[in-house]
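Researcher: Structure prediction, please.
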Amino acid sequence: MTDPTPDHPGIRIFAPPVYRHPNDGARWSKRYGSTPNAAYACPCGQTRTAIGAHAVAALVADYDAHRSVCTGTPAPLAEGRTAA
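Model: Predicted structure follows.
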């Protein structure tokens, strides 16, 4: 699955289950599961990615906060004539 882009905004979260069944042979192994990761993109151009459970939770909170105040219009470029 690909990350969202400003052209295709949204949020993508991959969070594998933490709980394992007691009869699962991998429960007691040293093999680690997949690491949670997430990414979001807004039509205004803001994008962000996160890796790890705490970072993914913070990204989701940031995405909710950003959506509540964002108008969805791209930020003006500070290049060329508009920068002067």
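Model: The helical segments are 53-69.
Researcher: Thanks, that helps.
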